[in-house]
Amino acid sequence: MEIEFHVTPLFAVARVSGELDLSSAAKFRNLFDQQLRKSGVPNVIVNLKNLSFIDSTGLGVLLGRHKAVKSWGGKFILSDVPPKIMSMLEMAGLMRVLDTARTEQDAIGLIESGGYANQGEASTNE
Questions:
Q1: Which of 8, 43, 68, 71 measures 20 to 30 Å from 118, CA to CA?
Q2: Predicted structure pTM score
């Protein structure tokens, strides 16, 4: 699992690649939390375009980061979710909790415009 961050004053983008599972969840959690503390940004977009696999531990770490970001009033949006990963999110019932956007650019637009959906799939209505 690799994670790359891009930080702006309004949001951070975390681009995740590889596998988010039992063997990589702690690394993801530590890097993610460290970067957010360092940047101090309120909103996070997690781009999953290059994520090839996620297990229940990976789902749990995503949910934990979502709860942390929401607890301080930020927005947490998953973007570019591959169909295989989307299926796992749906089977786990997390699509009722986690917000998604079709693309990273859509998620950025939602945050910048304030057009943010509270739950379920975020949409730009384009």
A1: 8
A2: 0.89
Give the β-pairing of 2-7 and 43-54: unpaired
Number of domains present in the structure of the chain? 1
Is residue 74 a contact partner of residue 52, using CB atoms and an 8 Å limit? no
In a domain, 122, yes or no: no
The answer to whether position 99 is within a domain reads: yes
As averages over each run of 10 residues, the pLDDT of the chain (126 residues) reads 95 98 97 93 97 97 96 95 97 95 97 63 38
The enclosing domain of 39 has a CATH number of 3.30.750.24
89 belongs to a structural domain: yes
